[in-house]
Design goal:
Layout (H helix, E strand, L loop, with lengths): L17 H60 L3 H21 L3 H6 L5 H33 L6 E2 L2 E2 L2 H25 L8 H34 L6 E9 L9 E11 L2 E9 L15 H7 L16 H16 L5 E5 L1 H11 L2 E2 L5 E2 L4 H12 L4 H20 L4 H13 L5 E3 L2 H7 L15 E10 L9 E11 L6 E11 L5 H4 L2 H4 L11 E8 L5 E7 L2 E2 L3 E5 L2 E10 L4 E9 L7 E6 L18 E3 L10
Parallel strand pairs: 3-6, 10-19, 11-20
Antiparallel strand pairs: 1-2, 3-4, 4-5, 6-9, 7-8, 10-13, 11-12, 12-18, 13-17, 14-15, 14-18, 16-17
């Protein structure tokens, strides 16, 4: 029989003192809390290591994507479709990898952490934007590159096949939308909230997208405009206006000849060609010219074809010219396109030499001196023969282009001419004009922003001759905050020089010098300079060598304008300084639009160069505080 006490019979253990029980419980809870903290700390460290590793790998992928973007651009520039497709595939691979590395749940959760989250969010935004550009922009565009690249477009029997371009329109529209969205996403990143390496990546991405944007926009504009303008939806008629910069007008030069070109289903043909002098004049304006325009440039803008472009507002000048053509010849004008001998010179690099009925051979080297100087010496007293020669030259170049030329060379020449504003286009169709308004081809008055004062310098001949062949122009501009109220002062400085020979009065044909017909002594050059200030701005002063000089002051579409006349004998120069006070700008940025001119020494200007504008300092001491 067992001895001892059973479990049930054992005396109860004495209860622990209350203090000791609490101590044990706290000890157990403390050990649990420490263990939990260790686990949490381990998870945090693991998450940090995870995010850090994936962030590093994503950065590597994004860095690898940059050369791919440049490779795609280079291949497209060379019309290398296969190379562009290969580079696009590599770009897409790196971009997909970057998105994958920056979109897992751990990364997304960490984006909500203060300070750290902003950096992670920026990296994931860059990754998604890069992926969108690769997948939704570059890849689809590479697939249609062969059909929308203007350099690869070929004319067959004077006709361009518009079907591939029409088919590419929806693809191009989606790509442009995707690009704009991606660019907006990158632009929304606050650089001040991220660390320097990520901020640098944001800047690099913004710069890259800014470089790509104009190319993409140009292709998009081409795809949207070309079919309709070449008659895909019905016949079109355009005026090709030849401007003569030897007698300056604000948009480039006096209208020497004008031709009607008909386009239908991609085919274009020259229909009617006349001298500018055969149209008008009229006793009253044929178009409703704004009173402000007439106040600045006189009543002839709406009555004489040669004077419609006294105003630098090309859409207004084009509408007026179209109305004059219809009043004279009837029909419908769907648009107006300007060219000048500098444009013809550039086109001749694509066409090669062109033989003229006169026996002359027109080349890129001799087009400008022959058409703007030599022809006046050949026919000194026969303006009709001069106009006819110019018209035949333009027709010969047009016919050569329509017969088929090197597309890449032609597009390069035309693009350069558009950049320098020697080609301007206006469409009577609002949907097309709204697109043109966003390009350098529009010729509209410059528009200011809160950060940038949009200024203009425009030249109009007042000699009544072709002496501007010898006019040299120099333009400078600057902007500064000179006043206590923070308003921006803008300054324009223009120097004109008459480079004609000292004996110009007798050595040059009377048709070139004007022979004093309009009150200007032979050999001298009189020029009206129109200085345009920023939107909603005020004219402050007009001086030459620090002395106030006469000017005609007015406004044009909300912009202050000062018109100054300068008269120069051979060898003389004069500088005019004009200051404006901006009322809507809060930063001293500025842009300057300038009439494209000749070089004044008989050489051909670079067709791709916009008129040079030197940066000058604004003398704040002369500004009324």
């Amino acid at each position: 029989m067992a001895t001892g006490l059973s479990h049930q019979d054992a005396p109860p253990r004495p209860a622990a003192p209350p203090f000791e029980a609490r101590r044990r419980r706290r000890s157990r809870r403390g050990r649990s809390l420490i263990l939990a903290l260790i686990v949490v700390a381990g998870l945090v460290l693991l998450a940090i290591a995870w995010i850090g590793l994936r962030g590093f790998l994503a950065q590597q992928e994004l860095n690898a994507a940059v050369p791919d973007v440049k490779a795609v651009r280079a291949a497209v520039a060379e019309s290398d479709t296969a190379g562009a497709a290969s580079a696009a595939a590599e770009l897409q691979k790196h971009a997909h990898a970057a998105v994958s590395l920056t979109s897992d749940p751990v990364w997304q959760l960490a984006e909500g952490i203060p300070w750290v989250g902003a950096n992670l969010s920026a990296v994931s935004t860059i990754s998604r934007a890069t992926d969108a550009v690769a997948s939704e922009v570059i890849k689809p565009l590479v697939s249609i590159a062969g059909s929308v690249d203007p350099r690869t477009l070929h004319l067959s029997n004077g006709k361009l096949d518009l079907a591939p371009i029409v088919a590419a329109q929806p693809v191009m529209a989606k790509a442009q939308t995707a690009f704009d969205t991606a660019r907006s996403d990158i632009g929304s990143i606050d650089r001040s909230s991220v660390i320097s390496p990520i901020g640098s990546a944001v800047t690099k991405m913004r710069t890259l997208m800014a470089e790509v944007a104009p190319d993409l926009q140009a292709v998009d504009n081409t795809v949207r405009l070309l079919p309709g303008m070449l008659g895909a939806d019905g016949p079109r008629s355009y005026l090709i206006v030849a401007q003569n910069p030897a007698e300056l007008r604000a948009t480039g030069g006096l209208i020497g000849s004008i031709a009607l070109v008909n386009a239908d289903k991609g085919a274009a043909a020259l229909s009617t060609e006349v001298a500018g002098t055969s149209i008008g004049p009229w006793p009253t304006p044929v178009f409703d010219v704004p009173e402000a325009t007439s106040g600045l440039y006189g009543p002839l803008v709406g009555r004489y074809l040669q004077d419609v472009n006294f105003t630098p507002d090309f859409p207004l000048a084009a509408r007026t010219a179209a109305a004059m053509w219809v009043k004279t010849h009837g029909g419908v004008v769907d648009g107006v396109i300007t060219v000048d001998p500098v444009v013809l010179s550039a086109m001749l690099k694509a066409t090669g030499p062109v033989a003229l009925p006169s026996g002359d051979v027109l080349t890129s080297a001799n087009a400008v001196p022959l058409l703007l100087s030599g022809i006046y010496a050949r026919y000194p007293d026969a303006p009709q023969k001069q106009d006819a020669f110019f018209s035949k030259a333009a027709t010969a170049v047009f016919d050569r282009v329509m017969s088929g030329v090197d597309g890449a060379a032609l597009v390069k020449a035309l693009a350069a001419s558009g950049t320098s504003q020697r080609i301007q286009i206006w469409s009577s169709h609002p949907s097309e004009q709204s697109i043109l308004q966003t390009t350098t081809l529009a010729g509209a008055l410059p528009v200011s922003t809160p950060e940038t004062a949009a200024l203009g310098v425009y030249f109009n001949d007042a000699t009544g001759s072709k002496m501007d062949y010898y006019l040299r122009t120099s333009v400078g501009a600057g902007a500064a905050v000179c006043r206590a109220d923070g308003k921006v002062t803008s300054m324009l400085e223009v120097t004109l020089t008459n480079s004609a020979p000292a004996n110009a009065a007798t050595a040059l044909p009377a048709y070139v010098t004007g022979a004093g017909s309009y009150g200007v002594p032979p050999g001298e050059i009189k020029t009206r300079i129109a200085f345009y200030g920023p939107d909603q701005g005020l004219l402050a002063e007009v001086k030459s060598k620090g002395v106030d000089i006469p000017s005609v002051a007015g406004t044009d579409s909300g912009r202050p304008v000062a018109v100054v006349e300068v008269l120069l004998a051979p060898g003389q120069s004069k500088t005019v300084d004009v200051q404006f006070l901006g009322t809507a700008q809060w930063a001293p940025g500025y842009t300057v639009d300038v009439t494209p001119t000749l070089k004044g020494d008989g050489s051909t200007p670079d067709v791709g160069a916009r008129p040079a504008v030197a940066r000058i300092a604004v003398p704040c001491s002369s500004v009324v505080k």
